[in-house]
Specification:
about 325 residues, alpha/beta, Rossmann fold, 2 domains, four-stranded parallel β-sheet, 12 helices, about 10% strand, globular, binds zinc ion
């Protein structure tokens, strides 16, 4: 009888220690931290995040002590509608990480719904945000047909802090604090992992600084207005076809303005694979601009590319677009 009991409990422990029997390649490559077998039941802290950069940071900082769920998955965080199941997932979480600055159109609602649980951390809460410049914001695009969607548009501040390797370090710090507050037993692990990730972002910052300091041009056009922090950090100007939300389509006026600006010394469009790509193609054809691919890094890479690697890929494209020499 005793033997049977031991055998059964081993099976249970074994199963409990393998919460993710078949991790995706992305999860596998990101789980670089040491296994913490002591976490209760081997299940880890339940961390629910609003989009990919926070999933990446939570997985890196939390290692195997956390289970990370990315609510929007591969969808565009600017334009995602929560399902009742998503809301339940947020309610069941030990830690909820949101970007804030109205990246999540539903962020305020979730903060309110979870106010009693004390689980929510806003990753940009300690970051000085840029106010949104509405020059390219096209008052006319908020016409009648969009009126009902206004609350889903951008807020007063730019939420794209993850693209700036310095501000990203502030986000890592918020993630670290949130995990430690919820699970102080693993504070040493979270601190060590956060320090390692912060070092990688600092190295990324050095690479950007070096690569973008000697450039023939200082202006480039992006698909949507996601690169404002990055451009400010490294002293170039990011023009944008779409607005702060990748879903904001440009007006004829915006496209005409971009064409005029392009004539004054822009040679490239750095294009994301988004719905505004057709406008990028038109502008490229009409203004004779070259197009290069770039990612706003808001969603996971289909090929499993790591966030930092993809940031370095972006750097190569920006270097080319600005004609920089080392
Ligand atoms: Zn965006």
């Amino acid at each position: 009888m005793k033997q049977i009991f031991i055998a059964a409990s081993c099976v249970l422990v074994f199963a409990g220690c393998s919460p993710s029997n078949s991790p995706s390649p992305a999860e596998e490559s990101q789980n670089v931290s040491h296994v913490n077998q002591e976490k209760a039941g081997g299940k880890g802290l339940g961390v629910v995040v609003s989009f990919y950069p926070l999933a990446y940071m939570a997985e890196r900082v939390g290692g195997d002590a956390v289970r990370v769920t990315n609510i929007v998955g591969a969808s565009d965080p600017h334009d995602y509608t929560l399902s009742p199941r998503d809301i339940q997932t947020f309610q069941d979480a030990d830690v909820v990480l949101l970007q804030g600055a109205e990246l999540e159109p539903w962020g305020d609602d979730i903060v309110q719904q979870l106010s009693d649980q004390g689980t929510v951390t806003i990753a940009t809460e300690n970051i000085a945000l840029i106010e949104v410049d509405d020059d390219h914001g096209d008052a006319d695009k908020h016409g009648d047909e969009h009126e009902g969607e206004d609350e889903h548009g951008h807020g007063a501040f730019d939420p794209h802090t993850w693209l700036d390797p310095v501000l990203a370090q502030g986000m890592v710090s918020s993630v670290q604090s949130a995990l430690i507050a919820a699970d102080p037993e693993n504070a040493d692990l979270y601190t060590a992992n956060a320090t390692a990730l912060t070092t990688e972002f600092a190295e990324l910052d050095s690479a950007y600084t070096q690569a973008l300091q000697n450039c023939a041009r200082r202006d480039v056009i992006f698909s949507h207005d996601a690169f404002g922090y990055l451009a400010k950090r490294y002293n170039f100007t990011a023009h944008a076809i779409a607005g702060i939300s990748s879903q904001d389509e440009p007006s004829a006026k915006t496209l005409a303005t971009l064409k005029e600006e392009a004539a004054e010394g822009i040679t490239h469009i750095l294009a994301e694979e988004t719905s505004v790509n057709r406008f990028a193609q038109t502008l490229s054809d009409e203004a004779g601009l070259a197009m290069l691919p770039i990612s706003a890094l808001a969603s996971p890479d289909e090929d499993g590319g790591d966030f930092i690697e993809r940031s370095r890929d972006n750097l190569v494209q920006i270097q080319t677009a600005l004609n920089c020499t080392l």
